Amino acid sequence: MAILQKCSKCKKRLSIRRKKCSRFNSLTLGKLCKWYLELPEVKAKTSYRRDSHFVAHLKRLLGKRTKIKNITIGKMESYRSIRLSEPSVVHPGKTITRCTVNKEVMALKVVFNRAIRHGKLKENPIANIKKLSENNVRQRILTPDEFTALLNASDLHLKPIVQMAYFMAMRKNEIIKLSWREVDMNKGFIRLPSERTKTNSSRSIPIHPEVRDTLEKLPKDSSIERVFLRRGKPFDRIKHSFQSACKKAKIENFTFHDLRHCAINNLRKAGNDYFKIMAISGHKTTSVFQRYNLVDEEELSKVKWSSEDKKLE
After folding, report:
1. Contacts of 151 (CB under 8 A, 6+ apart)
2. 144-300 maps to which CATH number?
3. What's the CATH code, domain 26-135?
4. What is the DSSP secondary-structure string of 236-293?
5. pTM
6. Per residue in 58-76, pLDDT tens?
């Protein structure tokens, strides 16, 4: 009797394992991506729209009916080759950058890792794929005159956003979606909770004096939490208005994100150490942070020499 019970248990375990294997083997990219994008925690991400865009490209080229078990590193290398040859919508006349392709592959890695945590996959089939090397460090920093011209050319709703980005090294969504409860005018800080930052870490940012003056003059509506409004209503996109301002100010080859580069460089030139600047900008690693620091020839011309070098002259 005991032997029969053991056999019955073994059969049940084997049946469960077979069902799990069958589920893993039949899971397609389309179904997995649909499941991922419908997760509440994923929908809450500030990068949800961008991630959905990445997933759309992955399904288009890999095939939404492709089984996960058939997605290999070799298949992803072919995907990268095709993507790198496709024209860029954002930059006409150019092809998709390595940086963009790396982000798309990383997005798929994230989908697979989330599926593992939920028991939908046993392993990540592209866990060991290496990133493409990138050489896309931006070298564009505004001069004080250019910044003034950009500010003057900006529409009323855009002006305080450009100012905050230029002085305080905050990311675009952190600024646009800023709420009054995150602004402490008494102590002079903006405090962002972890769910509002890219790195999922809370952050305190000291308010620049010029930004403070601007915030004090902004109209407040007790029924609306958001700080920045357009025609009395919150908004989420500034792409076209920013491009228009750059065109009016005759500023070329400049993106909104470059304002963050400007802020970080200005904070460094003012004599702040890297620890303080990284705490303000939210960078966790010096390798990424250093990409935002551009030492120009004017600074290099003021290099200090040791007393021993002077003796040799």
Report:
1. 159, 162, 163
2. 1.10.443.10
3. 1.10.150.130
4. ---HHHHHHHHHHTT--S--TTHHHHHHHHHHHHTT--HHHHHHHHT---HHHHHTT-
5. 0.66
6. 999 999 999 999 999 999 9
